[in-house]
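The instructor's notes for this session suggest beginning with a concrete chain rather than abstract definitions. Hand out the sequence below and ask the class to guess, before any prediction is shown, which regions might be ordered.
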Amino acid sequence: MSFSNLLMKSGLNHGLRGTPATVVLISTRQGHRLRGKPPGVARTLEQRLREETVTDPEVVARINIGFPQLKESRSAQLKTRLAHLKTQRANKQLEQLARSQKLIIDLDKVQQTYVQTTGQHDLRLLADHYGIFEHLYGSAYFVPRVPLSISYELGGDTLTPVYNGNVIKPAEAAKAPLVSFDGQMDPITGKSAAGQDSYWTLLATNPDAHYTNPSAECLHWFIANIPNGRVSEGQVLAEYLPPFPPKGVGYQRMVFVLYKQQAAMDLGSYQLASSDYSNLEKRTFSTLEFYRQHQEQLTPAGLAFYQTNWDESLTEFYHDVLNLKEPVYEYDFPKPYLADQKFFPLKQPFNLYMDKHRDEKQLNKEYLQRKLAKSHPFDGPAKPLRFPNAHPIKDVPSWLKTEIRKQRLGTGRIQDY
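After discussion, reveal the predicted structure:
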């Protein structure tokens, strides 16, 4: 029977209304008769719409809220690279140092070149990986155009720098960090614009530290109207509060965002009184709402972040600074599944099966007492047999024979005590 005849017989070729008939194809291939439904025919329209989710590109597209980058054309960049490569190859002294393994590379210059070329783009990708933009700006993002250098003093000349997501303990971040950036830098051209005054805003927030409102952030530091990159001369609206991740929650993110202002701004509404320094509710903050309200006057230009988790110094910080009882979070694991007890458990060790249905504390107590009963208070436990398997075990049940063998070999749960 041809496929067209099959369609006519099933009613699909006549435009019949109602529930479409199910088409069953019968064909012969290599001597075997194959039966089944053709793919896609038996699915209804509702099922197809569920499987094919149509998304509008304009709705799901991410928005760049940062500064654009004005750079040379591709041909000009290639010409510059070729000229630099030609100069390096013509340097005979450099070649001699490299062949004799005496060439010293200036790592600071390498880091500076990396930051000026691809470092800030890599920082944007790392921030996406850690969910920084998603939890601060929703569907928006930006490429940091102004390198932001942040480091914590540990005493003396030792500094702990803030890298791209490195781990810094709360004890190391107890004091306000040292922040520096080029305040005369034009974020679009990347060149210094000397002679022009510029104002900046620095915000430090923790998107994981607010416990009453999961969608809000905790404001740790707020400095506005920073003139020409001099952070010490900026208007401090909120004093620095060290991170305080509770025990048991894992790592939290501390995010520093640098904004460039169009001019000096009046942000006195965000002023936090000195008496509210440890008031966490007064430090409730939303980066997205802040940017929406002032997006005409400032633009994000710099970014830095690190991770932090609990350490012993936070116990005193919670009691003395925050005046709170230190919270401790633990996982509430579900109880293990235990089937109903059987009267005759087949193919299971009798003692282990019975231990499953006993009180765990009482069971642990018996194991500990059994071990201590064989231990001398001064000489310790008895010396184990030199050849445990050489001593026969007779006239005991099989399950007890297994337990004695485990005790002699030092295996099994008896080793937990």
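Then share the key points. The longest helix spans residues 107-129. Residues 31 and 236 are 85 Å apart (CA to CA).
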